[in-house]
Amino acid sequence: MYRLIPSEEETRDEERTEAGSVRTHNRFISETDADKPKGRFQSFRQKIKSMLPSVFHSDPCPVSWRSKATGATPGAPGNSFTIPKRNEEYLLDRVFLRRLKRLLKVLFGKRSKITWMYVGMIMFCILNEFVIYYVGTIPSRYYKVLGDKDSSGFLRLLLVSLGTVFMAGLGKSIIFLFGSLLALESRKVLTLHFHQIYIQPKLFYRILMIHEDEVDNPDQRITQDIDKLTEALRKMTEDLNIMPLLIAFYTWQCWEMAGYIGPLCIYGYFLLSCATSRMLINPIVDAIFYKESAEGYFRYLHVRFRQFAESITFSRGEGEAKDSADASLEVLMLTQLDIIYKELPLKFLQHSVSYFGSILSYVIIAIPIFMGVYDDLPSPDISAVISKISFVSMYLTFQFSKVIQCGTDFSDVAGYTSRLGQLLEVLDQLNTEMENIAVDFPHEEARSDTSIRFEKVSFETPSGDVVITDFTHRFEPGVSTVIVGPNGAGKTSLLRVMGGLWPVTKGEILLPHRYRKDVIFLPQTPYLTYGTLREQLVYPNKEMAASVSDADVHRVLKLARLDHIVTVVDGFDTAYTLDWNKMLSPGEQQKMAFARLFYARPVFAVLDEATSSLDTTSEIEMFKQCRLLNITCITVCHNEALEQDHQHRIYLDGFGGWEWSEVQSGNGASRGAGSAFGAGPARSPSEDMESDTLAEGADGSY
Ligand SMILES: Nc1ncnc2c1ncn2[C@@H]1O[C@H](COP(=O)(O)OP(=O)(O)OP(=O)(O)O)[C@@H](O)[C@H]1O
């Protein structure tokens, strides 16, 4: 037996609420809050932040167990516009460094190829820099041979310089290749890491369904932000990876030729530029964070159009769809405009730094020349020296200006790092919560117990409303139970608690030891996986598909009254993606879920309105097959006629109360025997016989 007990974390959250000591970011606040925008840019940002949820959260803002801990009151009277808002600023601070360190640790982990690729790239860059140094000194050699009128020297130099320039070009392209492969590998490593943490039992559900106010668009962060981060890192790496070596080398060269004044001027200039640049980058990091949020919502809106195309069209909602898409685009444009405005001073600084840098290099040359250091040299040699110093000092200032120019890439890196780091932190936090929804392995004596037991279980919604109190019941194999009650009474929530999706606040739930095998949940809308028909039937255990024989496929499809789809698919091993949703109507999709169930034949089938789209005959047939295959149903439904297919009935009153009773008129067994089928449309005895035979056939074969 697995044991689901209240989460300590949840309890702690409540204590925090009562104590009033809460996390400050992710508060729910209203537009009427005191922190009104101050400056022009702040007001701009405020506008973007406030528009994001108002445009995209057409549904009421999700509230979570965690948000409850903030003690805020979404939708409270007077809060005409209540939105979730983050107080966190995304800056180049210690939080950013911590997040970056974490991502780099993943990238340069023990088994990652990235370390070696990076080392290879650095080696190549160093080699290439030797070539570049030679290319840089070529003009001074030309001054010399031309000044000396040395024609054979000139020809030799021409050949050598052509070869070197070709080598330098080739080197740059190879560095680009290295960088691109490195970015590709980095994306793979990071994405796999996120998949590993994010696509975990129940975690996935909790972050998307319950904690979505804490971290927006996790899908976008994984699919796009990682890509953009690795691309920005690639650009920075290509520019900066051997920069410290180059700076050291060219500082020494500059010192040799122009004395300490040269490097001193350049370093002072660089420090000043860096300090200004940092000030200008900070607001961009924040703006990038919000731009990506807006990007995510915009994309999500279009995904929803695709998902609900038919419903929108039936409701003639295209106008509303267009308005919301336009509005979301407007927000996105505002966020992009915000970045453009904030990047403007940075761009100005970057360009000015490189132009001033070239002037500075002439100042550095001028100092030794006016001090008479090179007075005793002949003029061709002075020209050569001037050219060489100019190259060295310009290259040194160029290295520093590259650092400033990387500011834009760096602000990208910082923005994406914040988004990914934040996602990792929320995932960590949820993982801890999941650990606190304890799963205890049973004592030996409990292993044979195949029942599902609820012992005085109470639980509440994520927003803290009590759903059911002190629920005690034992679901026994062979005794099907129907759960009924008004809308919002908590029927599905009871199944969520049974499935470990929601924690209990009191009491405990004991589940069969072979829980994963013995208990199968069928939701109202089944998930159709990408893949072949065989893979659909064994979902989620795709690896078992090969063991499903053609006869098995035919048999379970016939049991689920879905045998006609063998003519729709090209073959049992033909893979389909989105086409599954087009090939199967909602009712057929539910039948597919039953086909899976008939193939797996668990002890319990937990059905949450899983037959809502089926015609009455098929609905009755599904329950009959369950009975014949010894599958005990725990069914949430609104169809009173289905009660006859169950022995027990649980009624939830919607106020936390519940009532257990035996189903009075007839039961599933008697219905299965024949007469009680009168509850559904008339069926021929041969049809019944056929179903029974099929079920028996299935019995023998699985
Ligand atoms: N993620 C959530 N956050 C906050 N409240 C929720 C959440 N999910 C469900 N609830 C609330 O829990 C209550 C019970 O919902 P549940 O889906 O269990 O009802 P139900 O009995 O299955 O309803 P129906 O018959 O309409 O399917 C509802 O009031 C609903 O608003």
TrEMBL record:
InterPro entries: AAA+_ATPase, ABC1_TM_dom, ABC1_TM_sf, ABC_transporter-like_ATP-bd, ABC_transporter-like_CS, ABC_transporter_sub-D, P-loop_NTPase. GO terms for biological process: fatty acid beta-oxidation; long-chain fatty acid import into peroxisome; peroxisome organization; very long-chain fatty acid catabolic process. Residues 452-680 form the ABC transporter domain. Keywords: ATP-binding, Membrane, Nucleotide-binding, Transmembrane, Transmembrane helix, Transport. One of its GO terms (molecular function) is long-chain fatty acid transmembrane transporter activity. Gene3D superfamilies: P-loop containing nucleotide triphosphate hydrolases. It comes from the Eukaryota. The chain crosses the membrane at residues 115-135, 155-184, 353-374. PANTHER family: ATP-BINDING CASSETTE, SUB-FAMILY D MEMBER (PTHR11384), LYSOSOMAL COBALAMIN TRANSPORTER ABCD4 (PTHR11384:SF59). Belongs to the ABC transporter superfamily. ABCD family. Peroxisomal fatty acyl CoA transporter (TC 3.A.1.203) subfamily. This is ABC transporter domain-containing protein.
